[in-house]
Write a structure and sequence with these properties.
The protein is α/β, with parallel strands linked by helices and 162 residues long. It is built from eight helices and six strands. It folds into two domains: 99 residues, 2-enoyl-CoA Hydratase, Chain A, domain 1 (Alpha-Beta Complex); 48 residues. Helices cover 56% and strands 12% of the residues. The strands form two sheets. A three-stranded parallel sheet has the order 1-3-6, with helices on both faces. A three-stranded mixed sheet has the order 2-4-5.
Length: 162
């Protein structure tokens, strides 16, 4: 199942790592991320690894080695914050995303997460084949058939996770 981080205030070091280990990051305008251990003579690499997955190795290394803080607005620009909102609407926006995801087939969501992980680093031809295999399996599933039938009938699907 997708995991959503809802962040406000400071999420430094492993707070950044934890947020970026999630599939989605919803942040308030006052959220701040960073790996600041270098400022006190240490280094915290796990959050940097997570950061690199989102923004690339060179850019992540810049933040890890400089100890520079990353405000939510910059996180949105860099692509690891998916939604930024006022502090007062953070919970509402997070729940909105959760409800949207909950309306999808759990089978499809699981296949998407597992598929992305398996396809990482594959040659293009193998990735295309893996994606096709996953699509075919979902198309043959009860949820896949229900989704197509609901689309054709112009009604919301009733997914069962099978």
């Amino acid at each position: 199942k997708p995991v959503i981080a809802s962040v406000h205030g400071y999420a430094l070091a492993n707070g950044t790592g934890l947020a970026l280990a999630c599939d989605f990051v919803v942040a308030s305008e006052d959220a701040v991320f960073g790996t600041t251990a270098v400022n006190v003579g240490l280094i915290c690499l796990e959050p940097g690894y997570q950061l690199a997955r989102w923004i690339g190795e060179k850019r992540a290394l810049q933040y890890v080695l400089s100890g520079e803080l990353i405000p939510a607005s910059k996180g949105l620009e860099l692509g690891f914050v998916h939604t930024m909102t006022a502090r007062e609407t953070l919970e509402e926006k997070t729940l909105e995303l959760a409800k949207k995801l909950a309306s999808k087939s759990a089978l499809s969501l699981r296949a998407g997460k597992v598929g992305f992980a398996r396809m990482e680093g594959l040659a293009l031809e193998r990735a295309i084949q893996a994606g096709g295999d996953i699509f075919a399996a979902l198309a043959a599933s009860e949820d896949g058939r229900e989704g197509v039938e609901a689309f054709l009938a112009k009604r919301p699907p009733l997914f069962k996770g099978r």
